[in-house]
Amino acid sequence: MYQYDCIIIGGGPAGLSAALTLGRARRKILLFDNGTNRNRVTQESHGYVTRDGIKPHEFKEIAITELQSYPSISISDQTVIEIKKDDQQFVVNTSNNISYLTEKILLATGIQEEFPIPQIRQYYGKSLFSCPYCDGWELKDKPLAIIAESEAHINHMTKLLYNWSQDLIVFTNGHQLSDIIQNEFQRKKIMVYTAIIKNLHGDEGNLYSIELETGENIVRSGGFVVPSFYRPNNLAIQLNCQVDENGGIITDNAGRTTVSGVYVAGETEKAGPSSLMIAAADGFKAATSINLDLTLLRF
After folding, report:
1. 9, 44, 111, 266: which could form a disulfide with 279 (CB 3.0–4.6 Å)?
2. Of the candidates 230, 59, 42, which has an alpha carbon nearest to the alpha carbon of residue 121?
3. Are residues 280 and 207 both part of a single domain?
4. What is the tally of structural domains in the chain?
5. Cβ neighbours of residue 113 under 8 Å, at least 6 residues apart?
6. pTM, whole model, 2 decimals?
7. Could you report the per-residue pLDDT of 7-21, keeping only the tens digit for each?
8. 157 and 248 share a domain?
């Protein structure tokens, strides 16, 4: 059976950053990446200094090229389906029926989105987005839609987006807003439609208008949505990692979970969205914890 110091599951910025750090620390690393990272649908990634505007696949290609400089790092596109604790080690099983042994596990599989309206996915990453810091600049001063169902999310996203564009219309998809929020938006000339959304219209990912069940068809050229997020696998549950009341994986703030030998980095930890830069920093932080723990164990 193949033996590693650490197996990293997830090839997003957190996993790639951790692999680089551990490879440079001369640890034998296996990185699993099955290509399902959620930013694969994005045309450009923003906010990562020296890489602003880079395409996600180019970002990953550069990272993998860098990792290949370190002979102790291996990369696999297999999907991990099960992890079991075996004495002081972990057995990692893949969908290809291959098993691997490792002393440490880093979970960096990220999260995935669920949308209140299925058609959103046709436009997501091209004209509809979820993070103003990532994509607000490209949509500045355009007629934008805000699609969300929770009043707290609507209030936060609308106020935030007003800095990028003041031509905003809120779509609640059948949910009502309090009079306080309605009046506050009205003072800023922000319209609110509470009718259920019937359809989105556009072409090749470019949004043109939003059709409501009332028959109204409101012209918009893009916008922002507030999806719900979930972890794409139950590996943390398999490993008995403790979670908090919000579903976040409990850590020591340095990547260590409540299970000895299991670490977490990036969006996997909080089951919420993060930027490339923050996720990469989380990967670095978790990797230094892993390397320190291996050092103290073996010295």
Report:
1. 266
2. 42
3. no
4. 2
5. 38, 124, 130, 227, 228, 229
6. 0.93
7. 999 999 999 999 999
8. no
